[in-house]
Amino acid sequence: MSRSILQRRVEIQGLATAILLPSVGVFGGPIGQQVRDVGPLTSIVGIGLFQRTVLTLQRAGIRQLIVLSGSEEEQLKQALGKGPRVTIPVRWMPIREFPLDDPRTWEALAAEVHGFALVASVNSVFSRGLIERLRRDVQDGQAIVVSQAPPEQVDQLLVQCMRSKVQSGRPANFAPLRFNDPVLRVADLVVVPASLMSIADQPTSEKGTSPIPQWLEQAVVDGRVRVVSSEDKRGNWYQPVRTLADVQSAEKKLFSSLKGEFEGFVDRYFNRKISRWFTRLFLAMGLSPNSITVLAGLIGLVAAAGFGMGTYSVGIVAALLFQLAAVIDCCDGEVARLTFTESPFGAWLDVVLDNIVHMAIFAGIAVGLYTTHMGQTDDWVPLALGVAAVFGNGLSLVLAEKAHKIKAASGWRTPAHAAWADVLLKNVASRDFSAALLGFALFDQLYWFLLFAVVGTWLFAGTVAWLIRPSAVSSLRP
Question: Which domains does the chain have, with CATH numbers?
Fold first, then answer.
């Protein structure tokens, strides 16, 4: 099969266009008019529903956006102009010129769509993972409906419908579904093929409403509709926002979905539980992710200075401060993901400052131990261990940066090498040892912590050096 044919097939089957309905629901009914204070501009963790929907679609790989807007068009445009940059093209089509109940509107939209269109109302918050799943799951000629019901309930409903169809003797291989079934809990988010939008003999719909329910009812008889379930556990979640109570539920859903690229045991079961309180505070204060990173770094440096004093009580306070820095260090990523302000510089700054703090902590402990053992024959040992730990940490950072460059260039020789690189690079700034440091401080055993730190940093550096050896790296083209 030629390359041009493959490219054309991808274009035909791909899902790269989204059509947003800010003022009406996909399955009927207005949005933001009958429910007090809830609409497309309603703020969810500091970002309006419409803006959050657009940014989520953009992050999930949607490359073209069409907005069928009403009287709120200017307000929506202003909302998109604030905050994170929208890089995908946005085409505005006023409903007064392109009525939803006019088949010609959808004929015009079908001409803009290559393969499939995601049609969504702006009355929900959903995960990037859900859109990515829909983009992977598209099949030629099939529509996709998203259900909020658990997968087992969806499967049970499909089986019941199929039995009903078999008993009725109808020849279709997919039983009709009622999309207003309360058990199904259909989301205002569907995927439709362009062929379904451009059928000449489309059934008429009620004035001012979307014809999508009629399309699906017609297509379901032909077995061209699939129902997928949004699943929280797999990151494919969907949360409707129709009332003020839903706003709180949506914010809770967003916070519960937060996690870093890598989470150790302490991050998952301790730091992340506490960091969300700080994250709410930082969002209310309007702090940027980079400023939070710097704040965590400054607290860590204060902790290092405390260790340098060498007393037991100050050492415990320093360990608690370092634990606080580890908690706040989770907040920069949380704020960035919630506000769509992630950046390569922010990720670099986070890793560099984390490692600077780590080296300062090792140096501070070494100085503190030296001051308490000054005059003894082995008083030089803590300083030697401190130098070894700092040098090992710095070497790990340098080698990890080289591994990052190899990863960016897809330069690993085998998938196994690539997998090892992912594990090591995600651990280069881990602060899981903060809890261990607190334990060593409580038992006044910082000397042993420093000794373990030396072993750990050099073992990590040696592993990264082994990973980036010439035999593990492909010959990269200049």
Answer: 3-252 (3.90.550.10), 258-472 (1.20.120.1760)
